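Hey team,

Filing this mostly as a record. A colleague (T.K.) asked me to run one chain through the structure pipeline before their review meeting, and I want the input and output archived in the tracker in case anyone asks later how it was produced. No errors, nothing strange. Just documentation.

Input sequence:
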Amino acid sequence: MTLCKHHTTMLDKIRQLFDQSEKEVKTIEPVVQAINGFEEQIQPLTDEQLAAKTDEFRKSIEAGTSLEDILPEAFAVVREMSKRCLNMRQFDVQMTGGVVLHQGRISEMKTGEGKTLVAVAPMYLNALTGKGAHLVTVNDYLARRDAVWMGPIYHKLGLSVGIIQGQSADSDELGGSYIYDPEYEHEDPRYMYLKPCTRREAYLQDITYGTNHEFGFDYLRDNMAFDVENLSMRELNYAIIDEVDSILIDEARTPHIISGPSNEDTSVYKVVDKVVRQLTGGEPDQVDEEGIHFVSDKKSHSSSLTEEGMDTVEELMEIDNIAEDPRLMHHLNASVKAYGLFEKNVHYVVRNNEVVIVDENTGRLMFGRRFSDGLHQALEAKEGVAVKRESQTIAVITFQNLFRMYNKLSGMTGTAKTEEDEFRKIYGLDVVAIPTHRPMQRLDQEDVVYKSIDVKFRSIGRELLKLYSKQQPVLVGTRSIEMSEMVSARLTPDNLQKLVLTDMLYFTMEDDKSVKKKIEKDAPIVLDTDLAELTLKSIQAVLGAAGLATDPLSDDVASWFLDFHSLDPEKREHFDEALRHGIPHNVLNAKYHEREASIISEAGRKGAVTIATNMAGRGVDILLG
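Output structure:
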């Protein structure tokens, strides 16, 4: 059992030293002061007079006035209407963030600083040109929520809002396209004030909210259209990307593909799978070892047959030279990749007799998406489900290529400075860190690095048990579905009891050398073995030899835990409850956006423990208490 260490990179310190954000914010201060200067003359205006400002701005733009010239007054108008519609007046730092977005840069704002509201003023200003403005979010729920939430401001100022929604076969979303209409009552309360319309109509609105995926696929569909009447989108004028680091960096190279079925026979995949199933895989440095038939390099994401592997395949398939059959070689390579590089419940899952891809960045199940080049068919053969025909690519685009086509691009997120070099190099986007409205109260701790996975999971379990005993709400973010299930498994009564006993043994040995002497031979076996592989009896045997309490539910063990973690005695009730019944918790594997959002929003309740993939419920407000 090894303790951890905190980790701060020298690169982070260098970035902080040369960060120009403070200087950039100061250059924007005169603009914010100009916005504030309009406040007194705008406040007395009626709603109708405020709305009339929109036509006034449009005429000025047509007459040749630049957006920068009308920015201060336009932002002041939006601020006043926001105050009237939502009872929210944008703070000066939010106005600063809005100016940065209008300038075509990335606004980095801490969580809770109101990025949704920040986007309204620059969206309004850029939509005045009549060329459209897009707000890009990471999921359909956020696109819908933000459009309806901010919709009253746009509506009262005379701008129309369209909403683009996606739909998958395994989702409870309705999908479709909508126009925000405060007088329209949808039969589904989730779609209140959203009036169904065509895709084209949604894009023709002054402002359009939607997800990165839908914008990508609509662009591809437009490029496949043979008639102008079948086009949905208009020119790519201006976009604000929410969670910009996720979309432009993490998912930048993810190709969006529209494909059609080919006429190829699928039986060959099962034949090849029976052969590859008998082969033995290894690491790249084992390529010349006897008995290794293929090697896989997960870093370069490549797999290939060894010389011995080629001979073995030829022998099993009773052919002379496999290299002479390129088609068969293609299927073999796909199958070798399926076994060497792709793990079930990590890279894909099997649902309803189908192989469903897991997004490596979000942990979200990507229903309807398929790997190309025969890889998906190889995975289907590997898992013994029906093999569907390989598709042929008709149209393809990446987010990187799509969003670089916009006349002006900007973004907002809570974490962009670390990727600033990439943003600048790939997209020509600067990152400006906006100061918080009030001094930060949240403590942003350094990263913690552990020597092994078991030590890391012991630490997570220990922290969750301590916080649950205090009834402090916890949200645990994981990178994959498998990881979220591994964390969940550590919260069972059996694993928590083993954890508390091994903790008591370890920390008592650290404090009392006499205890360490009694069990110095047996203790390492208990402390260095994965907790999941230990039995309660084996731990209790070592504790008994050390003269320590062996019953995890005893007063002695509870007193030790509460004292060690500086917890009040009245927390004993929740500690006992956890050890007897496990820690109650929700696990979100990023499948249903609606359910995610509702559970995430409740994650701040007293004693709530929520385990989620990093993208589940992203952007949802969590209320504490």
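Quick notes for T.K.: The radius of gyration is 29 Å. Residues 466 and 565 are 7 Å apart (CA to CA).
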